[in-house]
């Protein structure tokens, strides 16, 4: 039975541990924090429960696949949402994105004045992009020749113009519609991997397919219950976990990974899988090895500032997922590219107590208010947060006609440096490198080392990218490469 060490118990690490243990390896996980989940964490404060990181859950089949490996998995309850998201604009326009695409189309016609059928046409285009290229780009290593010699690739090549690889997301969307609010809605999906719709390639317009054609889900005990159920299932399969154990280095002998060093102690293994952000793993765990500089020097994805607020009031006009859009979207992304945040940023408000009533005291709500922020480059975050807090409060007050500051009964704030400190994510970037260039998919670090045998990489900083579904798919690719030998 091969021994395998996994560095980190984020989603990629948990998923890899389950897959390899199921394949007959004895897997041991080392995690520097005191529990699993990495960016997917939770905390409680003054009677409110908050998920720390991800809040939007799509493609649950990738979690179900993992749980199915155990005879008696620890399952988590989930529901499919009827309303995907509520959108608000400063001029008073609101749009409810129903999970029923016909209803969403009608709502968009009434709210934005766009011709009936526009939403359906746009969502069809997203599906075509996913059907043509999703499995090639998301479920296979782009760095293995085998991926490129099959019928699916030929089909995709024959339809290359439909993939919009060489246009930006925004310009590709302009071919389908012209309404500025609809373009803003569609551009927003670039932020799902920390990118910019005015730079990122049009192929990323497949992202809304997950949310609107396949569906948006919510685990009824909160997002953290996904990590918890993967952890408990991994333990049932026999995976060994060591918390508060930071890996200091990866042992390499004769160009082959031989294990890890934890607190000065060598721990031998046949394979090593690294779930630590690859941008920090090289300088910290593989100091004496050749550094893939071109990959590591790439632009980072965006980070975020989050206000976790206990709110002593209930807002009927808000749902689980809510977006309050900025007035000037191009300016918002221009500011991010310059390392700044605009004075009128787009706000995302997630309120899990809308569904999980125990997440807040009765009559109150747990608000997770997230603003896209640049990755950390030693900005003065205290100054940025003070100014941003005022702007956020003003925007909420105007959009919801309220005085929200009077209702904030508890608060915690998360900044890009906090994200780096707690989850070892380089510069606090949420999704590793940005996807702002047409070749960005090829510029992510592969799921294996090209110089060191038996060393593999999983998680949101490597191929196929960040976000819950893709971090889980990175583990599937690692498993496939190891089993192919
Ligand atoms: C604020 C925020 C909002 C987000 N929103 C969404 C969303 O709505 N939907 C979505 O799909 N995705 C979202 N994401 C992205 C998603 O959370 C991540 O892509 C995904 O969780 C990353 O998983 P990962 O496998 O890369 O591991 P990570 O979560 O990065 O975990 C890596 C783990 O490795 C551990 N580690 C690192 N170095 C060492 C070491 N040397 N020794 C031991 N342990 C180590 C860390 O402590 C950590 O636990 C969000 C992320 C954040 C932060």
Short description:
This protein has 485 residues and is of the alpha/beta class.
Beginning-to-end CA distance, first to last residue: 15 Å
Remind me, CATH topology of the domain at 3-40 and 56-77 and 221-298 and 444-484?
Answer: FAD/NAD(P)-binding domain
- In order across it, which strands form the biggest sheet? 8-7-16-17-18-15-19
Quickly give the structural class.
Answer: alpha/beta
CATH class of the domain at 3-40 and 56-77 and 221-298 and 444-484: Alpha Beta
In the predicted model, the low-confidence regions spanning at least 5 consecutive residues are none
- Assembly state of the chains shown: single chain
> Could you tell me which ligands this complex binds, including any ions or cofactors?
flavin-adenine dinucleotide
Number of contiguous helices: 18
| General form | globular
Radius of gyration: 22 Å
Strand content: 15-25%
Q: What can be said about the biggest beta sheet?
A: 7 strands, mixed
Let me know the number of strands. Answer: 20
Kindly report the name of the CATH homologous superfamily of the domain at 3-40 and 56-77 and 221-298 and 444-484: FAD/NAD(P)-binding domain
The helicity comes to 25-40%
CATH architecture of the domain at 3-40 and 56-77 and 221-298 and 444-484: 3-Layer(bba) Sandwich
Give the overall pLDDT as a whole number: 96
């Amino acid at each position: 039975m091969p021994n395998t060490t996994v560095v980190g118990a984020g989603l990629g690490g948990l998923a890899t541990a389950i897959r390899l243990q199921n394949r007959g390896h004895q897997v041991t996980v080392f995690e520097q924090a005191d529990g699993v989940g990495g960016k997917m964490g939770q905390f409680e404060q003054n009677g409110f429960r908050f998920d720390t990181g991800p809040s939007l859950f799509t493609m649950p089949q990738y979690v179900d696949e993992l749980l199915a490996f155990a005879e008696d998995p620890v399952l988590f309850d989930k529901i499919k949402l009827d309303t995907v998201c509520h959108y608000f604009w400063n001029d008073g326009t609101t749009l409810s994105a129903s999970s029923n695409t016909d209803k969403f189309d009608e709502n968009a016609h009434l709210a934005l004045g766009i011709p009936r059928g526009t939403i359906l046409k746009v969502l069809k285009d997203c599906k075509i992009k996913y059907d043509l290229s999703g499995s090639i780009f998301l479920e296979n290593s782009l760095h293995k020749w085998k991926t490129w010699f099959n019928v699916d690739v030929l089909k995709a090549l024959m339809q290359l113009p439909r993939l919009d690889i060489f246009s930006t997301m925004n310009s590709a969307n302009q071919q389908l519609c012209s309404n500025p609010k609809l373009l803003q809605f569609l551009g927003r999906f670039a932020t799902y991997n920390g990118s910019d719709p005015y730079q990122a390639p049009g192929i990323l317009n497949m992202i809304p397919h997950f949310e609107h054609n396949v569906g948006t889900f919510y685990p009824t005990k909160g997002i953290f219950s996904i990590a918890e159920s993967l952890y408990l299932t991994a333990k049932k399969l026999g995976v060994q976990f060591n918390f508060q154990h930071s890996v200091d280095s990866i042992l390499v002998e004769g160009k082959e990974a031989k294990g890890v060093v934890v607190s000065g102690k060598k721990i031998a293994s046949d394979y090593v899988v690294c779930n630590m952000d690859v941008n920090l793993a090289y300088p910290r765990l593989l100091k004496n090895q050749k550094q893939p500089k071109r990959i590591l020097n790439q632009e980072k994805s965006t980070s975020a500032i989050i206000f976790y607020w206990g709110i002593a009031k209930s807002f009927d006009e808000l749902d689980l997922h809510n977006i309050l859009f900025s007035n000037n979207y191009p300016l918002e992304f221009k500011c991010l590219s310059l390392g700044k945040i605009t004075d009128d940023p787009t706000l995302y408000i997630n309120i899990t107590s809308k569904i999980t009533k125990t997440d807040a005291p009765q009559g109150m709500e747990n608000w997770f208010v997230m603003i896209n922020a640049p990755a950390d480059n030693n900005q003065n975050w205290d100054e940025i947060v003070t100014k941003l807090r005022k702007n956020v409060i003003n925007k909420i007050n105007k959009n919801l006609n309220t005085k929200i500051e009077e209702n904030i009964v508890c608060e915690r704030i998360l900044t890009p440096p906090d994200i780096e400190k707690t989850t070892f994510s380089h510069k606090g970037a949420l999704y590793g490198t940005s996807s702002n260039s047409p070749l960005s998919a090829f510029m992510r670090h592969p799921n294996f080392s090209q110089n060191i045998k038996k060393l593999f990489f999983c998680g949101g900083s490597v191929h196929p990218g960040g976000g819950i579904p893709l971090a889980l798919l990175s583990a599937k690719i690692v498993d496939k490469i190891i089993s192919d030998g």
